[in-house]
Structures are given as C-alpha cells and as structure tokens.
Amino acid sequence: MVQGTAMILESPIWVEGQATEVLGELGAESIAVYRFLSDRFAVEDPAQDRLFQFVYRSFYRLDSAGLSAEFKGRYFELMSIAKSAGTVDLREIARELGDFPNLKGQSSLQFSFATKMAATVCARKPIYDAEVASIFGFQRPPAYKPFEARLEQYFLFYSGLQKLYNQIIEEGTFKQVRAQFRSKFRDTEGYVSDHKALDFIFWAAGRYKRRQAQVFHDLAAE
Fold first, then answer.
1. Confidence of residue 161 (pLDDT cuts 50, 70, 90)
2. Residue 175 in 3-state DSSP?
3. Residue 26: its pLDDT value, please?
4. 84/144 Cα distance (integer angstroms)
5. Of the candidates 57, 37, 10, 59, which has an alpha carbon nearest to the alpha carbon of residue 173?
6. DSSP secondary structure string, 120-146?
7. Which residue, 120, 127, 125, 126, is CA-closest to 46?
8. Is-contact 184 214, C-beta < 8 A?
9. DSSP secondary-structure letter at 65?
10. How high is the pLDDT of residue 216?
C-alpha cells in the first residue's frame, strides 16, 4: 500500500492566550498517576503486573470502551513485547487488536489505545484521542470505510501531530503555556518529557474547548 504524507497541522495559538484556563483542566492526581505508571512500567513486565494493568486501564479508560477480556489480555502482552523491542509498530498493533471483537461482537479500530501503548513505551510519542483531535479539527474516519482506509487516515493525522510536537520543541514555541505547566506541576522534568507535557496541554485544551462549547450550547437553549 502506498503511504500518504503527513497532514500539515497548524499550531492552535489560542492555547497560549488561555493557558491558565486550559491548565485548569489538569489536576495533580493525573500527573501523579502518570508518574506511577511510568515508574512501574520501567521495572515490571506489563503482561504480568496486575496492579500496573489495573491503574493503566482506569487512567486511560480502557475499561470504559466496551472491550473484551481477550482484547485487554493481548493488549498488555503486545505492550510487553514492545517494551522488550524498545519500539512499537502502530500499524501492526492496531491490526492485531482489530481482530478482537468488542462486547457487541463488532470489529473495531482502537487507534487511540495503540498510541497510548506507544507513548508508554517511548515518551517521545504523542497520544491520539478525541480531545487532541478536536483541537486540530480532525474527525474520526466513519465506521463504514474499510479498516485499512480508516487506519491510513489516522496515520496521516498522527504523523502530522508527531511532526508538530517535534517542531514546537525544536523551535521553542508555546513558551508561556509550557512554562506554566512546569510551574504548576513542579519538578516534573525528570519524568514528564517535553512531548508528554504537550500531550497533557493539548488534551486539557480539547477538554476546555468542549466544556466552553457546552456552556454556549446551554445558554443558547435557555
């Protein structure tokens, strides 16, 4: 299959202007849980560590996605394999996990969970989820499209997201919101990478944007 080029993503400049409000969506508990998972992953086998699995499933909402026990078991086996290899093949992970029907008996493309695995193995990898996608106006490919076509659309966005994160870090942009993140969550440099900090920031921005849209919707409905 011929691979496409990355999407060109524009930096959401408004996040800088509303840094305080955006970071208000993040709590210290989320940072602490992330640190726990990172530390635990470094020393334990994720395929065998039940405590790691329990906290991970809760933190990343794996238990809320209507997925089977077989899916979850294989998910952590694949994470263990990726840890040993030191890398994650997102396409192959997504394809293999797609072989497991969800609790409704439907096949599903769990790209977000594949990227969360990748980010656990390598802290320089971004996470794709609905909150982050909303910041850049990316819409999830419709379910009626073939699996490979949907996977390619996800990858076009994801590769663009990774390129943007690298560019922000290399050029030193988004200084205000990144500095406020480090100020709010002190002493995180040792376990929250610059890439992961952007993950947190853009997830919070997506959540803030969604909440504001809901407020406007509610006011309009009155």
1. very high
2. helix
3. 95
4. 36
5. 10
6. HH-TTS----HHHHHHTT--PPPTTS-
7. 120
8. no
9. S
10. 59
Residue 23 · residue 204 · CB < 8 Å:
yes
Residue entry with tokens 């910041």: 135
Q: Tokens in use for 94?
A: 């997504």
- Which residue has 């947190």 as its token pair? 200
Contact 110, 143 (CB under 8 A): no
Cα within 13 Å of Cα(73), Cβ side:
4
* Distances from the Cα of 70 to the Cα of 40, 88, 101, 220, angstroms: 23, 20, 9, 45
| Helices 90-97 and 147-171, packing angle to 10 deg | 140
Other Cβ atoms within 10 Å of 149 Cβ, number: 11
| Residue 62: other Cβ atoms inside 10 A | 19
Entry field: residues in the chain: 222
For 59, counting Cβ atoms within 10 Å of its Cβ (0-12 exposed, 13-18 middle, 19+ buried), the class is middle
Tokens of 211: 């909440």
- As a whole number, mean pLDDT of residues 71-76 equals 96
Nearest to residue 39, comparing CAs of 162, 191, 203, 141? 191
First vs last C-alpha separation in the chain = 51
* Spatial contact of 6 and 32, defined as CB atoms under 8 Å apart: no
Residue 142's identity, in one-letter code, is P
Question: What global pTM score does this model have?
Answer: 0.91
Hey, what are 88's tokens?
A: 């994650």
